[in-house]
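Readers of this paper often ask what the protein records in our data store actually look like. Such a record has a labelled line for the sequence and another for the backbone structure tokens. Nothing more is needed to write down the fold, since each code stands for a local backbone conformation. The record that follows is passed on verbatim for readers who wish to inspect the format.
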Amino acid sequence: MHVVLRSTKAKGNWSMRKGQNPARIKSILEKFGAKYGVDFFSIVNVGNHLHIHLKLGSRHTYRAFIRATTAAIAMAVTGSSGWQKKNVKFWDYRPFTRVVAGLRGFLGLRDYVRLNQL
């Protein structure tokens, strides 16, 4: 599955590539990936959006995984917490998802992610 998480608010200090944010995002994805049985083929942080190529252990875990991941990333980047809310909508839309079928789709997505990485 190909998942894209996009935020136009991710500029300046809130950029997903600034400071400690890349390491935080990677650890959040690894943590919730292990919890919900998600395997990652690639994770590309472009600054204002993330490309994630993943394999779900079960289709029923997607909802919990994406809800926990997006909330944790938004809180880590903006600096808000459950106690201190900033009342800022960080993500633009719902996550873009696309099921990748077959070898041709897999290789096409791999090349697309590599181009975005550059």
In short: The first helix runs from residue 21 to 36.
